[in-house]
Structures are given as structure tokens and as C-alpha cells.
Amino acid sequence: xxxxxxxxxxxxxxxxxVIIPILLLWYxxxxxxxxxxxxxxxxxxxxxGGLGLFIKTTLLFHKVxxxxxxxxxxxxxxxxxxxxxxxxxxMLLGILFILLSEALLxxxxxxxxxxxxxxxxxxxxxxxxxxxxxxxxxGQDYIAYRNSVPMWLPNFRGKCKVN
Length: 163
Description:
The chain has 6 helices and no strands. It is mainly α.
């Protein structure tokens, strides 16, 4: 299981947050400059928050869901604890925070545009593919969860009504 877990991390988020941004900077003839202090502060906050969220949700996939973030070895159990109580896609939010931090820290419009495109593609994918798979796999439990927890904007006031 550890091999599948590591492979999923290297294939998916590592490529999205490291390899593709490096290629974008490389092929856009990026010239590095020191960002403004506010960009550095916000970039570091977003990076730390995003990395923490990604690590927490990945561990939940492994420990609670008994699977990986890869569609080839998905969780066997529905995860509705931790950050999943307030938002349905906290792992992807973590990745988006990391990408936004990179856009800020490198002052890169290319990475920012890539982040927007990545988010749009995932919005479409989640609505058209992943949610259907989750309903098929977890049935009414997922439907109740989907109806009580927002997809992208965390609901800090309400609590997940699914146990």
C-alpha cells in the first residue's frame, strides 16, 4: 500500500505543483525577481496552509479511507471527518493554495493562469465524473454528504450532517 500511496503522490500532485510550474517558467523565459514583501508573506502563508491541508487529507485517505488519492486505488470508505466536514474537496484546495503561492512567490502570470485552468478542469471533472463515481461507490451516504457540505467554499458555521 505504501508503494501505491507514494506513486500516487509523485504522479499526481507532484507533477501538478512542481513539474508543470517549472516547465511553465522554463518555456516562458521567466526572469526571476524579488517579489514584494506582501507577496512573500501571502505566498508563504498559502504554501504552508496548502501543504498542511494536502498532508492532512492524504493521511485521511490512507488511514480512514484505506486508499490513495489515485483513481487506480481510491478510498474504500467515505471520508467525512477533519477538513472534509467543512468542504468536499479540501485536498484540491490544498493543491490550489500551493499553486497560488507559487504564482505569488515567482510573480508568474503563467502559473496563475495555469492555476485557473487547473481549477476549471477540476470543477468540470468533479461534477461530471467523480461525483458519479462516488454516488455509485457510496450511494446515499455520499448523496447526504454532498447535500450538506459545500464543494469549494468551506462552511465553518455548519457541521457535516452525515455521520
